[in-house]
Structures are given as C-alpha cells and as structure tokens.
Design a protein that fits this description.
The complex is a heterotetramer of chains A (about 550), B (about 100), C (about 325) and D (about 240).
Chain B: H1 7-27, H2 35-55, H3 63-90
Helix pairs in contact in B: 1-2
Chain C: H1 24-57, H2 74-101, E1 110-117, E2 120-124, E3 130-132, E4 134-138, E5 142-149, E6 154-158, E7 163-167, E8 173-178, E9 183-189, E10 202-207, H3 209-217, H4 225-235, H5 238-241, E11 260-262, E12 268-270, H6 273-281, H7 305-317
Parallel strand pairs in C: 1-5, 4-10
Antiparallel strand pairs in C: 1-2, 2-3, 5-8, 6-7, 6-9, 9-10, 11-12
Helix pairs in contact in C: 1-2, 4-7, 6-7
Chain D: H1 6-9, H2 22-57, H3 59-66, H4 71-97, H5 100-130, H6 156-192, H7 202-226
Classes of the chains: A mainly alpha (about 550), B mainly alpha (about 100), C alpha+beta (about 325), D mainly alpha (about 240).
Bound molecules: heme-A (2 copies), dinuclear copper ion (CUA) and copper (II) ion (CU).
Chain lengths: ~550, ~100, ~325, ~240
C-alpha cells in the first residue's frame, strides 16, 4: 500500500454509515455494526483513561521514595487502572467491537439474534462506566481490582460500593453480549455454513461467550454481597463474626480466572484470521485450533485456585489447581504451534496486521510461559504478589490481547470505514509498541523475582534500575498508541478508498461492500466451501 | 413445533409436587441425622426435574436445549465441587503437628 | 554461594538479577527457577526462530501467488500437545515437592509469633522480646513463625528466603524456614492492605548462634511470653474460674494443649492453637463434655491478637508432654 | 433455508426482519431464554456455594437460626408457587393451542398466586423484624437466650451470617418474583390486545420458562432455609 494521497473519493455505495444521519440514528440504532462503533468509541475513551492512570503509576515509580503523590492517591491509581482496563476496556474490547461487527457477517447473518438486546448491552455498559467514573470523580477506590475482603468490605473508606455497582452493571452487558453471540452462532448461520466451516474467529467468540455467560453471574453476586456487606455493615465475609475471607477469593476467582480467557480467546481468534490471510493459507489443524478454544473455555474453570497458593488454602487444593493449570496451558500451546505451522510454505506478507500477529505470537508465548512459573507451586510462593505477576499479566493482556486488538483493528479498518490507513506510519507505530512494551514489562520480571512487591507506592532503592527502564518503556509505548489514534482519525476523511477486499482475504465479510450495507449482504450468501479456502479457486486468480 | 402435553399430565405433576412438598416438611421432623439433608435435597432435586422436564417441556425439546440445561448443572457442580475440595481437605493436614 | 559476577563492580553499577539466597528453601527454589527459565528460553527461541525463518523464507514474492494448502497432521498435533504437557508435569512435580517440604515445620523448630496490623509487623519471642518490623533469627536453626492479623489480610514475605504466607484475620497461619547466611534481609508485606501497605516493611536479621543468644539475653523486660500470659490470665479474670489444679465450674487447663478434647456433642477435637483461640473468643462454639455453655464469657474484641498469643503460649506451657492424639478423658479429671 | 418453505414465505407480521422464518425466530428466543437461565443458575449458584461452606462450618448455628423460620409458611409458600407454576404451564399450553380466553384467565391466576407468595413473604419478614432477627439493621438483632431457646446465645456470632444468607437469598428470590409478576402483567396486556395466536406465542413461552425457574429456586430454598435441625427439640 502506498501512502501517497490518492484523491480520496467519497464512498457512494449505500452502507450502514450513510444509511441514516444524526445522533438519534446512532443512539437508537439496532444495527450490530453501528453498535460495534459505539462500543469502539466508548472503550477507546476508557483505554485512554486507564492509560493515563498507568502513566501516573509509572511516573510515581520512577523514584523509590514515593514522592510524587501520597500513598492513598497511588493506591487509587492502580485500582482505577486495573478496574478500568479489565472490566471496561479489555473484556469488551474485541468481543463487543470486532466481534459485534464481524460475527454476524462471518456467518452470513443479517444481524445478531437480538438486536435490541445488543443495543441494551451498550447502554448497560455505559451505565456501568458512569458508575465507575462517578467513583473516580468522588474520590476513587483503593481496594485493588480484586476487591479482597475484609479490606474492601470493612476497612476501606473509599467509594467501594459505587465501583462495585459499576462492575456489577458492566457484567450484565458482558453477559448479554455473550448470550447474543451464542444464540446467533447456533441459529443464524447462512445455508451451508456448518460448524466445521466457521471461521476460527467465530469459534473463539463462541468459547468466549460461554465464559461470559457462565462466569460473570458469579462475580456479580460476589460483588453484590460485598456491596451489601458495606451497606449494612454486616455480611458473610466478615471474620469478626466468623466469616471466611478466603471464600470471597474462591468466588472472585471462579469468574476472574476464566475472565482472563475472555481477555485472550477473542485475540486468539483474531490472530488465526490474520495469520491465515497474510500467509494466504488455511490455518494448519483447523479442528484442533477450534477445539482448543472450547477446551480453554472449559478447563479454564478448573484452575482458579492458582491465585491462592499462599492464602492458607488447603495444600491438596493447591496441588489440584496447580496440576490443572498446566493442563489449561496445553490448548494454548496447540494454538501457538498451529499458527507457526500455518506460516510454513505460505506466502507471507508484512502488512501491519501481520506485524501485530508476529508480536502477539512472541509476547503471548513469553507471557504464557511465565504463567507456567506462577502455576508451579514453590515458585509462585516466592513471586506471587510481586512484579513478576504484574509482568506476566501485562505480557498476556497487553502483549497478547491489546496487540491482537490493534492487529484486528488495522485488518478490518478498511471494512469498517471503507478507507485505508497510512501503511508507513502504521508499521512504525507497531514497531514502537513492540519495543516500548518489552522495555516496560521485561524488567518487571527481574524486579519481581528480586522481590519487589506489587501495589507498592514506595520501594526499596535497589529496584530502581528496573523501574526507570520500565517508566522509559511506558513513554515509548504511550507514543506508540497515540500515533494510530491520529492516523485512524485522519484516514476517516483522507484515507484512500479500500475496496471490498484489500487483503484478498477469504471470509464472507470480505464478499460484501466496504463499508457493508445495513443488512450486511445484498443477496443472502450461500456457503459452499471450507473456511480459508485460499487455494480453492486458484485458477481464477490466474498465475 | 413440539406437541403440547395434556392437561391431565400437568395436573398430575402438580399433585406430585404438592405431595412431595408436604413429604419434605414431615420427613424433616424425623431424626435421620446426616441423612435429613440428603433426603431433603433428593426430594428437591426430583421436584426440580419434574418442573424442568414437564412444566418447562424440556422432555420434548431439542438435544441442544437439553445440552444447555445439562451445562447449567455441570457448571454448578464445578463451582460447588471445587470450592468444597479446599474446605474438605483443609482438615487433612497431618494432625499432631501443631501449627 | 560464590560472590555474584557483578560483585567487583562499583556499588552503583551492580545490577542484581537474583535476590540473595539465605535459606534452605531459597537454593532449591532457585534451581527450579533456572530450570523453568531454561525451558522458557529454549521453547521461545524455537518458536521465534520458526516464525522468523518462515517469514523470511516464504515471504510473498508476487501479489497473486497462492501457496499449496496444508491441512494439518494428527501426529504433529499429538506431539505438540503431549510433549509440552509432559515437560510441564516436571514443573508440577518439582514445584509440589518443594511446596510440600515447606508445609509442616520440623518438631524442633523454635517459635516466633508475628502479628500483622495496619501497617506494621509486631514480633514476639517466647523468651519475651518484642520488636516492631524487625525479626531476629539464628542461623541454621528451623524457625516457625505463627502469623495472626488484627485487621485485614497481610502477607509475610522474605524474598531472601523465597517464602511468603498470607496472614488472614480470624485464624492462625504459619510458615517456617531455616536461615543459612547471617545478614540483613528485607521483610515485606505482600498482600495489599490499605494506605501504608508499602510502608509495612522491615528487616530480618539472621545472626550466628552466639550472637543470637546474646541478643536474646538483653531485652525481654516484661518477662517471657509464658510469664506475660500468666499475668494476663489473671488480668482478664480467667483465673477466677480456671484454677490450676482444682476443678470447679470449668475445666482445668493443665494438660489440655495438644490433647484430644471430648466435646458435649460426642465429637473430639485436637486442642491446638486454633482451638484454644476459638475457646477464648467464641467459647460456645465447642463445649467441653461435662460443662455448660454460656458460663465462660466471650472475649472477642477484648483481647488483641498479641495478648491472645501470650495466653496461648501460657496454656501451651501447661501441657504435659505425651503422645499427641491420645483422647483426654471428659473434662480434665485425672490429669496431672 | 431461506425460501425453500413456501408455507412460511407469506409474511407473518411478527417476523422480525433479520430472521428468515418464524421457526428460526422462535427457536432463537427460546434458546436465548435458556442461556439467560444458565446465567441465573450461576447467579444463585454463587450464593448456594457460600451457603454450603458456612453450613458445613457452623451446622449448629444453622440449625438454631432455622428454628426461627416458620416452616409452615415456607411449605404454604412452596405450595402457592407450585400452583402458580401449574397455571403458568397451562397458560403456555393455552397459548400454543390458541385458546385466548383460557390464556388470559390462567395468566391472571398466575399473577394472583405470585402476589400471594410475595404477601406471605412480606408477612414473614415483618415477623422477623418484630422478633429482632434482622442483623442488617442495628437495633433489630437480638440473639440472647429466651425461654423457647435457652441455649441460643452460643450461636450469636455465626447466626448473623446465616440470617444474612436468609435475607439475601430470599430477597434476591423475591426480586425475581417481582420481576416475574411485572412480566406476567405485560404478557397479560399483550394477550388482551390479541397479540398472540397459534403461530405466535413466543413471549408467553419464554416468560413461562422464567417463571418456572424462579419456582425451582424456591424448591431448594425451602428445605435449605426452613427445614434444618427440626428434629432437635430445642437448640
Ligand atoms: C489475558 C490474560 C491472561 C492469560 C491468557 C493468562 C494465562 C495464564 N496464566 Fe495468568 N494472570 C492474568 C492474566 C492472564 N493469565 C492476570 C490478570 C493475573 C493476575 C491477577 C491479579 O492478581 O491481579 C494472572 C495471574 C496468574 C497466576 C497467579 C499468580 C499469583 O498471583 O500468584 C497464575 C498462577 O498459576 C497464572 C497462570 C497462568 C497460566 C498457566 C496461563 C496459561 O493459560 C498460559 C498458557 C500459554 C502458554 C504456556 C504459552 C504457549 C505455549 C507454548 C509455546 C508451548 C510450549 C510450552 C512448554 C514446552 C512448557 N496467572
Ligand atoms: C487490559 C489491561 C491492562 C492494560 C492495557 C495495562 C496497561 C499498562 N499497565 Fe497495567 N495493570 C492492569 C491491567 C492493564 N494494564 C491490571 C489488572 C493491574 C493490577 C491492578 C491492581 O493491582 O489492582 C495493572 C497494574 C499495573 C502496574 C502495577 C501497579 C502496582 O502494582 O503498584 C503497573 C506498573 O507499572 C502497570 C503499568 C501499565 C502500563 C505502563 C501500561 C501501558 O500499556 C499503558 C499504555 C497506554 C497508554 C499510556 C494510553 C494511551 C496513551 C495516551 C492516551 C496518551 C496520553 C497518556 C500519557 C502520555 C501517559 N499496570
Ligand atoms: Cu500489610 Cu500489605
Ligand atoms: Cu488465573
């Protein structure tokens, strides 16, 4: 793609963007594509907010003394950073935006099964986000994103109820999205779109939806119980009357471990699409990659106790959860190996989305493998609640999911907006993100093994080297995120027209116009071939 | 769409449910030790199955619906069972070793 | 351990990669860590190399080339799920070994008591020393730290020992270690516990045996924990009911600790720290056979964790040594 | 699928644009409801889980608190709910067969019994309030020994936890009942306006599923909260 400005024409075909105008046409839309855009805007706002908190965290940690803000403020920083990034950015990130946009198109449906519920889920999300924002404006929360009792239920004197209500509400938006996907994927597939032909992106979203539907209610009730305990000054987690704080952790992690797979499976779905498209080759071991998504979703519910190895949980339970944590790593390994094998004898291009896919494979592998350190009992005893854990989860969440989101955004941007972004800048910022990311989070592995505890506002001076590196990296990372923000805005107006299928990709979404018309397809598609059948019509492409 | 059950079936189920309610009520007054809870839960489970299969008509539903109903049970068991693993095995700590 | 390779550099330029290893556990955890790191490096190098090589070797040469499809291989799939899993099982096995070795202290471990409180560690020794945010231990002797919390969950973390344990309110936790190297090491609170969580830090001083004895002998002005406990036993009015050798409305506490107590619901319990603690805070939870409930008042919210520990140590000192697990007769008759 | 069935091609006004057939629409709605019920199972499941743990930790306290519930009310309420489930099932049947008159009457019966349940529940709550068995409100908690319960003070601390369970579980259940009643009222209004017929009764069907689910929750709550330790004379 050349970045030379071709005279950007306007898009004439009727599409979901020019179907109607005015803010009402957006706020009352039931079109899954418009709702996806609404979500995209909202989570971007939340990401910037979470990112600002991250910046403040890193700024504070530049020096060991903790001299920028006081400790209460710092505690609120990382809490709000964690809550916003997890519940209001990463969990809805790919499912509610790319998933919302693409799942119906990829299976050849006109919309999701329940378009009004889809819109409702966005409003619920906004309501939840408002509560979170109110909690911030009123003075913040300082419990950590994990809301551990009895600190959250009895001791903290910040706006825990408000924040918990926000998360509780946002949970229902996540549930409704999942519900909609499950029904849509079961009932709305186009003729010929059998389960064995579903794009892996759709499989990944099906697995994600299962977790959303089965896990989220448990965290909802758990946080509701914490909220009630605060409101009435009595409840079931209070050790003073015989309650067990560890039970809270069980119930919290029953959701929140599977939730980390809500935060990675959609990304894995994106990577499957990217690797296949930019290798022009069917994904190696399609059925294994599909099945491994379901495997992760199910086994993911068996391992939550690995967050509790030092809490005084029974040793035997620790053994059980440790063993199963290794089992859940197997399906992830299958995916990594299959992506790599897909590239073998492919025709690989280095377009920006593929660069993000390379980044994902590398960083997710490191993040996942360090997850294995944590699942190893004796090592976790030493590194739990240190920066080692912080580094692990940023590798999988930022290095994994955020890169996948960025990759997917670049890949489907032409479909969503009908326009291309400037390739040169995109490649440059992908590189910046990769370098900045590693600089930020790799040193934290070392600091963590050295013993720097997490959630520390001031730390022992010997850790400073690593923190300085980390802060420097975060700056680079921040710049790496700002550039795409600018050029995406630019491309909305000035980007060259993309055409229906700029990547020559397979998949129903590429067969319709860019941007797609309101009901996605002019004529209802009928599917006659496998997913990723790049070689099926070889002769048509000439050669 | 699936056939509807007869009014008779519904009324019979209702009768069974009502009778079982009073059975639970009275069985609870008989000393059975640990078995009281077991009996109570078994009866409740049986009542639930009646409601699910006949009132909610799952009996005549597609395998897919049955699968989802089954999944509900399965995940409940995952939650309760694995939390129980911790609490049950806490007392397995070798006794005699003071801590 | 040999001096670290960066040992010769000027102080500012020393960049450590591992914390000091100063306990028996530390070395074994480090070996496991090396092993895990090695596997990680190998696996990720393999994957990165494959990605790199494929990306370069099979780069797209013309815009409309379409490679031959390869649909998969069952053998490969099985290989790359089973082999990594087997490797991971070695992680599991090794990790579990060390974890279990750390589960229960050797019987001859010396006792130390630590109470976490927003935001400090209060340490007491049976000999009567008390310190705040300082822990002194002798080298080469197993030490068991009994952990209690006054308020929220804290976590007792000594990086140089590669050990930590959460301190959960409402119960006792414990951990044990054998220090191997004299020196001063960090003590951190590793579970987020509110405002000054990052200030809940201190030092562990490992001393040679003579230094330790020396240190023990100055201090302890208030007497040993047993003596303090005995004093509290009077202050809180325990002694008005519980007399040492005369049985009245309430059990004699001599010989209770470590025995199996017969309860009035027919069950028996082992009288360990947790049981004594519960007997004091929530006496009605378990009633000793032959006694009435509601005679002993509850002391919840009246005795803090430190005093509780002193009382327990005192009651413990009344134990008559005998094989643990033997069932005591109902009440405490017949005990000397 | 799209145009193979000539029969459905004549457009039903209730068919929403993004579905191809009425059958697809109906199946989606029912499946959607079942998935929603899955989430409800896990929602209550969280509480049942915590209940299970505490009950095994404090069996005596649980039995003691249970003595303060009147199992007769519980049983009557169970019976009331079962009747409402019967009328609901019959209402769905009537809807399927297109019997409009019967549908409306049966819906009213369901609503009536739903309200009856809530009425009894309110009555019970009031009794606990008067009896000072509401630890949630300062000044409404008293668990010292009384004539009928000479030894209950020994359970005073964990009993608070268990009363919290009682109020949280029955409270969430009551909220679900309330939602159900409102739902039924809506369905009733729709039925009166002649919305339903033998080809379109999806809303009746899926609200029926919801109603039965709420019934099932109570089937478990009744023995778990009211019927513990009934055999021990006095706790
Ligand atoms: C996207 C999110 C995400 C993902 C995908 C993962 C994936 C994994 N995580 Fe992580 N984790 C988090 C997010 C995530 N985690 C978060 C947020 C926390 C902290 C929460 C908090 O306390 O605030 C956390 C904490 C955490 C802990 C608790 C640490 C502690 O607090 O003490 C543990 C412990 O076992 C763990 C383990 C794992 C494992 C085993 C995986 C596995 O699924 C990884 C599997 C992947 C691979 C293994 C890589 C690919 C495999 C190969 C290339 C094969 C080759 C391998 C071999 C030959 C061995 N994680
Ligand atoms: C989706 C999840 C997600 C994401 C994307 C991130 C992104 C980042 N996180 Fe996040 N982090 C968490 C989830 C996430 N984090 C969680 C769950 C915790 C645990 C919280 C807890 O303990 O309770 C945590 C904790 C955490 C800590 C530990 C705090 C502590 O324990 O004391 C640190 C410290 O370095 C950190 C840093 C960063 C950085 C530098 C980024 C960067 O990647 C962010 C880069 C992005 C931007 C900078 C925004 C875009 C740029 C702009 C809009 C320009 C304007 C901004 C600036 C110039 C600053 N995070
Ligand atoms: Cu105490 Cu953190
Ligand atoms: Cu986890």
């Amino acid at each position: 793609m050349s970045t030379v400005l071709q005279d950007p024409q306007t898009i004439e075909t009727p599409n979901y963007l020019n179907a109607e105008y005015g803010w009402k046409s957006w706020l009352f839309t039931t079109d899954h594509k418009r709702i996806a855009v609404l979500y995209m805007i909202s989570i971007t706002v939340m990401f910037v907010l979470g990112g600002i908190f991250a910046g403040l965290i890193r700024l504070e940690l530049l020096t060991p003394q903790g001299d920028l803000v006081n400790s209460d403020t710092y505690n609120k920083f990382f809490t709000m950073h964690g809550i916003i990034m997890v519940f209001f950015f990463l969990i809805p990130s790919i499912p509610a935006t790319l998933g919302n946009f693409l799942v119906p198109m990829m299976i050849g449906a006109k919309d999701l099964a329940f378009p009004r519920i889809n819109l409702l889920s966005w409003y619920i999300y906004i309501a939840g986000a408002l509560f979170a924002l109110i909690a911030i404006v009123m003075g913040g929360v300082d419990t950590g994103w994990t809301f551990y009792t009895p600190f959250s239920s009895t001791f903290s004197n910040t706006f825990v109820i408000t924040a918990a209500v926000g998360v509780f509400i946002a949970g229902f938006s996540s549930i409704l999205t999942g519900l909609n996907f499950i029904v849509t994927i079961h009932k709305m597939r186009a003729p010929g779109m059998t389960w064995g032909r579903l794009p892996l992106f759709v499989w990944a979203h099906y697995a994600t939806s299962l977790i959303q539907v089965l896990g989220t209610p448990v965290v909802a009730i758990t946080l509701a119980l914490v909220g009630l305990e605060r409101a009435f000054h009595i409840g079931i987690f209070d050790p003073a009357i015989g309650g067990d704080p560890i039970l809270f952790q069980h119930m919290f992690w029953f959701y929140s471990h599977p939730a980390v797979y809500i935060m990675i499976l959609p990304g894995m779905g994106v990577i499957s699409e990217l690797v296949s498209c930019f290798s022009r080759k069917a994904v190696f071991g399609y059925s294994f990659v599909a099945a491994s998504s379901i495997g992760i979703a199910v086994i993911g519910f068996l391992v939550w106790g690995h967050h509790m190895f030092v809490t005084g949980m029974s040793m035997y339970a620790s053994l059980y959860f440790s063993l199963l944590s290794f089992l859940v790593a197997v399906p992830s390994a299958i995916k990594v190996f299959n992506w790599t094998a897909t590239m073998f004898r492919g025709s690989i291009s280095y377009d920006t989305p593929m660069l993000y896919a390379f980044g994902f494979i590398g960083l997710f592998t490191i993040g996942g493998l360090t997850g294995l350190f944590l699942a190893t009992l004796a090592v976790d005893v030493h590194v739990t609640d240190t920066y080692f854990v912080v580094a692990h989860f940023h590798y999988v969440m930022v290095g994994g999911m955020v890169l996948a989101y960025m990759g997917g955004l670049h890949f489907w941007w032409p479909k969503i907006t009908g326009r291309m972004y400037p390739e040169g800048w995109a490649k440059f910022s992908a590189l910046l993100v990769f370098v900045g990311f590693n600089l930020t989070f790799f040193p934290q592995f070392i600091a963590g093994y050295l013993g720097q505890p997490r959630r520390y506002h001031a730390y022992a001076p010997e850790f400073q080297v690593y923190n300085v590196l980390s802060t420097a990296g975060a700056t680079v990372l921040g710049v790496g995120y700002i550039i795409p923000f600018i050029y995406f805005m630019w491309s909305l107006k000035y980007g060259p027209l993309a055409g229906n299928n700029p990547w020559k990709a397979k998949g129903l979404e590429w067969q319709t116009t860019s941007p797609p018309p309101t009901y996605n397809f002019e004529t209802p598609p009928i599917v006659t071939e496998e997913a990723y059948a790049y070689a099926a019509h070889k002769e048509e492409h000439g050669g | 769409m699936h056939p509807v059950s007869s009014v008779r079936t519904y009324v019979l189920v209702w009768l069974t449910l009502t009778i079982l309610t009073f059975v639970t009520y009275y069985v609870a007054q008989i000393e059975l030790g640990e078995w009281n809870i077991v009996v109570a839960l078994l009866i409740a489970f049986f009542k639930m199955m009646l409601v699910i299969l006949i009132f909610m008509n799952v009996k005549a539903e597609s395998p897919l619906t049955k699968l989802f109903v089954g999944a509900g049970f399965f995940w409940m068991v995952l939650l309760l069972g694995q939390v129980a693993i911790d609490y049950i095995s806490r007392t397995w700590m070798p006794e005699g070793k003071m801590w | 351990m040999p001096p670290p390779p960066w040992g010769g550099l000027p102080k500012q330029m020393q960049i450590p990669f591992l914390p000091e290893a100063a306990s028996t556990t530390a070395a074994s955890v480090d070996y496991l860590y090396y092993y895990l790191s090695a596997v990680t490096v190998v696996m990720s190098t393999l994957i990165f190399a494959a990605v790199f090589i494929f990306a370069i070797k099979y780069r797209r040469r013309s815009d409309d080339e379409i490679p031959e499809p390869i649909h998969g291989s069952l053998k490969l799939e099985i290989a790359w799920s089973v082999i990594p899993f087997l490797i991971m099982l070695t992680f599991f096995w090794w990790g579990a070994q060390i974890y279990f070795a750390n589960a229960s202290p050797p019987p001859d471990a010396m006792d130390v008591y630590a109470v976490g409180k927003q935001w400090m560690w209060k340490i007491q020794y049976p000999e009567g020393q008390r310190e705040i945010n300082e822990l002194h231990v002798p080298v080469g002797r197993p030490v068991k730290v009994t952990l209690a919390s006054e308020d929220v969950i804290h976590s007792f973390f000594i990086p140089a020992f590669r050990l930590k344990h959460d301190v959960v309110p409402g119960r006792y936790d414990s951990m044990w270690f054998t220090a191997t190297k004299p020196g001063r090491y960090h003590l951190f609170c590793a579970e987020y516990c509110g405002t000054e969580h990052s200030g809940m830090v201190g030092w562990v001083t490992v001393m040679s045996e003579p230094d330790y004895e020396n240190w023990l002998s100055n201090g302890g002005a208030e007497g040993t924990m047993v003596q303090q406990g005995e004093r509290l036993f009077g202050q809180y009015g325990c002694s008005t009911c519980h007399q040492l050798d005369q049985q009245g409305r309430c059990p004699i506490l001599r010989g209770v600790y470590g025995s199996r107590v017969q309860l009035n619901d027919g069950k028996t319990v082992l009288a360990d720290d947790a049981y004594i603690r519960e007997s004091i805070l929530n006496p009605n939870a378990k009633i000793v056979a032959g006694y009435k409930s509601d005679v002993m008042p509850t002391y919840v919210n009246q005795i803090n964790e430190e005093h509780l520990l002193q009382l327990i140590v005192y009651i413990k000192s009344l134990a008559i040594t005998k094989a643990p697990g033997a069932v005591a007769a109902p009440g405490t008759e017949g005990k000397k | 699928m799209a145009d193979t069935h000539g029969a459905v091609a004549e457009h039903n006004p209730n068919l929403r644009h993004h579905f191809d057939t009425m059958e697809q629409q109906f199946d989606s709605a029912t499946l959607g409801m079942w998935v929603f019920l899955l989430t409800e199972i896990m929602f209550f499941g969280g509480m049942f889980c915590a209940y299970m743990i505490y009950r095994s930790m404090y069996p005596g306290a649980f039995a003691s608190t249970s003595m303060h519930m009147d199992p007769m009310f519980g049983a009557i309420n169970t019976a009331v709910l079962i009747v409402s489930s019967l009328s609901m099932a019959l209402a769905v049947r009537a809807a399927r067969l297109g019997q409009q008159q019967a549908l409306q009457i049966l819906l009213l019966v369901t609503i009536f019994f739903g309200l009856a349940f809530l009425g009894v529940k309110a009555f019970e709550y009031h009794a606990h309030w008067v009896d000072n068995k509401v630890p949630l409100f300062a000044g409404h908690w008293d668990y010292s020994n009384t004539k009928d319960f000479p030894n209950q003070a020994q359970y005073a601390r964990p009993a608070q936890i268990l009363f919290c369970f009682y109020f949280f579980m029955t409270g969430f259940h009551a909220v679900h009942m309330l939602v159900g009643v409102v739902l039924m009222l809506t369905i009733f209004m729709m039925a009166r306006r002649g919305k339903f017929g033998p080809t379109y009764f999806t809303p009746v069907e899926i609200s029926g599923l919801y109603w039965h689910f709420v019934d099932i929750v109570w089937i478990f709550l009744f023995p778990l909260l009211y019927l513990i330790g009934r055999t021990k004379k006095l706790i």
